[in-house]
Amino acid sequence: MPTAQTEHRRHMTHSGRFTEWCDEREFVDGQLATESKLIAFLHTELIERGCWNRKEHYTVNALKLHMAAITDLWKQQVDFGINPHQRPRTTNVQAILSTYSMNAHERKRQKYADRGAGSLFDGYNSEGMLKNSSGHPVAPGRIR
After folding, report:
1. Cβ within 8 Å of residue 60, ≥6 positions away
2. pLDDT, the chain, mean
3. Measured between alpha carbons, how far is 41 from 58 in angstroms, rounded to an integer?
4. Nearby residues of 2 by Cβ (< 8 Å), 6 or more positions away
5. What angle do CA 55, 61, 64 make, to 5 degrees?
6. Where does residue 63 rank: exposed (0-12), middle (13-18), buried (19+ CB within 10 A)?
7. Which residue has the higher pLDDT, 47 or 42?
C-alpha cells in the first residue's frame, strides 16, 4: 500500500511532466490545466508514444494516474484562483479512456496474453523449487 508521501511524489512527477509539456508548446495561458490540453497531452505524450522505458503501451491505470495528477493540479490552480476553467476530466476524456481500455483489451487478446500468468494457477515444480532454494533445510547437499 503506497504511503501518502509516495502518492504525492508520484503526482508531482506526473503533473511536472504535464507542466513541462505545456512549457515546450508555449501556450498563451501557460500551464493552466484545461480539458483540451489534457486531451492533447494524453494523445501526444502517452497514447501515441507509449511507455518511455519499454516498448509497450501504457496501461489504463497509468493513464488514470496521469489524469488524476493533472486534475489535482487543476484543483490547486482553482484554489489559488488562477484557473477559471471547468474540471478537465470531462465526458470527452472519459470516452478516450474507455476507447483506450477496449483497444488495450483487444491487443492483449490478439497476443493471446495469459491473464493467469504469474498466479497460483500456474502451478509449481517441487524439484525445481528445491534446486533453486539452496538455503532450504532439505536442499541437496545440506544436512541439518
Report:
1. 97, 100, 101, 104
2. 77
3. 14
4. 10
5. 115
6. buried
7. 42
End-to-end CA distance of the chain: 38
Question: Rounded CA gap, 90 and 38, in Å?
Answer: 10
Distance CA 130, CA 139 (A): 6
On the question of pLDDT at 127 being above 60, the answer is yes
**In the numeric block, which cell numbers belong to residue 100?**
483506450
Rounding to the nearest 10 degrees, give the CA dihedral for residues 125, 127, 128, 134.
Answer: 140
Reading the block at residue 46, the C-alpha cell is: 502517452
Q: Is 48 helix (H, G, I), strand (E, B) or coil?
A: coil
